[in-house]
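The authors assume throughout that readers already know how a fold can be written as discrete tokens. A single example would do more here than another paragraph of explanation. An entry of this sort, consisting of the sequence and the corresponding backbone structure tokens, reads as follows:
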Amino acid sequence: MGNGTSVAVLMGGPPGEREISLLSGQAVAAALEETGHDVTRVEITERLAWRIESGPPRPAAVAVSELASLCEVVFPALHGPFGEDGTLQGFLTTVGLRFVGSGVTASALAMDKGFARRIAASLGAAVAPAVEGGPDRSKEELLRIARAALELELPLFVKPNGSGSSVGISKLNDRAALPPAIERALLAGGRVLVEQAVAGLELSCGVVEAKGGAARALPVIEIVPRQHEFFDYESKYTEGLTDEVCPARIPGEAASAVQELSLRLHRGFGCRSLSRSDFILDASGVPVFLELNTMPGLTPVSLIPLAAVAGGMTYAALCAELVEAASSE
């Protein structure tokens, strides 16, 4: 056992992004142990029961009462619905547990792509033209979305409004493919967003908060899928399918603009601990907002750790800094 903070690392959760969460959680737990922290691993099952250190599944309320006596800080390495949308954050807040990551409001707003676009635009970020719809799956609603999408130029992205890791996203070059793509998105995320694709360079920029709440932007990452048309689920999590270049091969002033905008979004959404904003740098050099993640992937090969290393910080030090900042609140 170490002499650092006692930390419960939560991982797993519902299907969709469960496997990535398990990888993130195990990596975070190992990194924290490396830096002298006392770690308790907690797996949340697909049905949202909690298993403490491979023990029997228990209701969350029962498990949390035990964790409250074991741990000073909770590190929820969970992604997507339940883990990143404010649901878990509300529960942890209600029971009085200190945790890494954003609170209820920022988590919920960032997870809803439609709300996130509107907030980003209000903070001065460019956004692509889009149509929102659902969750009604009636023929009338599908027809309304398809008609509204006629105002958008091809190609189009059809996205679930409330999921991450590119789950359920389709890129379309033919309007005839809209109905099945909308159906897939509705099944994955409750509501749907049809967004006009922006040609350009995909960029990502993380923001990390140190103890005391001082936020800093990490080096910008350039994302270049090798085989797929866009940075989809397989490209994100299959080794060799994507080149992730950090620092990004863009002019210094463009990198600074992306970092400044990422900091503005982090603060404007009310994020804590960390966030990662994704953009397309268009032909005129304008970063067009795609989304903001309040608990981005934290496997050693994920984007935030990659940028941290490029900025001179080890993966273990990054995880320890996040815990230290949480334990100081």
Remarks:
- The longest helix spans residues 252-269.
- The mean pLDDT is 90.
- The two ends are 24 Å apart (CA to CA).
